Model the fold of this input.
Amino acid sequence: MELYSVALQVPHHISIHGGLHPSRVITVSGTVPENAQRFHINLCTERDIAFHFNPRFDQNSVVCNTQIQGIWGTEERKLPVNMPFRRGQSFTVAITCEADHYSVSVDDQHLLDYTHRLPELQTIVHLEMGGDFELSKVSV
Done:
């Protein structure tokens, strides 16, 4: 496990050495500014986005998707009764890679599961984070 902390720039890119595999957990901690519209956490191959996790404050939703050869798939939207992210508050997202899906929790509360659309997990070798948030800690 590699741990990065304190004053990380956004956008931020980290290599996932050895790629993903079942039981691997990636955590991202940060703070949402008061004027945030949206941010994203992407798990990527060399050319595709295997998992796009995108909280959208302007839509009060969390959108997940996959981009293959530059083409986005069908969005999966989670419209939580209580949006797990709040402007002005810190958060920790944990993405657990399972055999057939990603399990995502926010502040230790399960939020959603997203079925793998790119099942070659070992080819997912990059973590990208960007948008409206202050990044404080990442572990891969």
The chain has one domain: 3-139. The two ends are 6 Å apart (CA to CA). The mean pLDDT is 93. The CA atoms of residues 38 and 46 lie 24 Å apart.
